[in-house]
Each structure stands twice: as C-alpha cells, then as structure tokens.
C-alpha cells in the first residue's frame, strides 16, 4: 500500500509565473520583490486569499522559491496554504489567479474564498 506524500510548499504554475512577472514589470518592481501570499477573514466562504508584491521578509515568514519567484507566507496563513498551487487562467470561463488548495473543504463559485 503506497502513501502519497503531500508537499508542504507553496508553488506556482508556468502561467501564473508569466502573469506575475508581467505584473511586476508593469508596476516597475525589481527582481527583489517576491509575492506575499496570505489568507484573511472574509469572502462568502469565510476566508479569502490575498496577493501582494513585497520585498521585506517579516519575522515568522515561511519562504519558498519556485520557478525563480520568492513566495512569502506568514505563519498563520501558511497553516491554511501548505501544499497550495497558484495558477492563472485567462479563459472564457474566468480570468485571474486560482488557488488549488488541498486544505480547502469548500470554495465559493468565484474561487476567491474558501473554508477549512
């Protein structure tokens, strides 16, 4: 019997990476700016995702580097986000960042909030 081991890192897909690099360039931010990924209360499912560019590491941050981009996650948010993959969709059924979060027991229709 095999047991799947779930990654505890936060990762990004190639499409998300391309969009993040485009946004960072449009904002005039240097390569030293990483992506702060966090969770805050709110949204129709109770918790919502938040993305910001940030160049400052805070005490307690969990730091991951995937495909060359630094991801900064505060410890409280990390408890909800461990193993999450950030994707980007620009299709007809919706445009924006999507969180593929194995910890979410329920997500809202728009994908911007979740519950555990």
Please give a structural write-up.
The strands form two sheets. A six-stranded mixed sheet has the order 4-5-2-3-9-8. A three-stranded mixed sheet has the order 1-6-7. The chain contains two helices and nine strands, in the order βαββββαββββ. The protein is an alpha+beta fold. The protein has a single domain (11-115), classed as Sandwich (Hypothetical Protein Aq_1857, Chain: A). The radius of gyration is 14 Å and the shape is globular.
Quick tags:
116 residues; alpha+beta; Hypothetical Protein Aq_1857, Chain: A; 9 strands; 41% strand
Q: What is the CATH architecture assignment?
A: Sandwich
The stretches of 5 or more residues where confidence is low (pLDDT under 50) are 1-6
The CATH homology group name: HesB-like domain
Kindly report the CATH topology: Hypothetical Protein Aq_1857, Chain: A
Radius of gyration: 14 Å
The class by helix and strand makeup works out as: alpha+beta
What count of domains describes the coordinates? 1
Compute the number of strand runs.
9
Percent helix, as a range, is: 10-25%
- From the spread of the alpha carbons, the general shape counts as globular
Instruction: Please trace the helix and strand order, writing H or E for each element.
Output: EHEEEEHEEEE
CATH class: Mainly Beta
**Number of discrete helical segments:** 2
What's the N-to-C terminus distance?
28 Å
Largest sheet: 6 strands, mixed
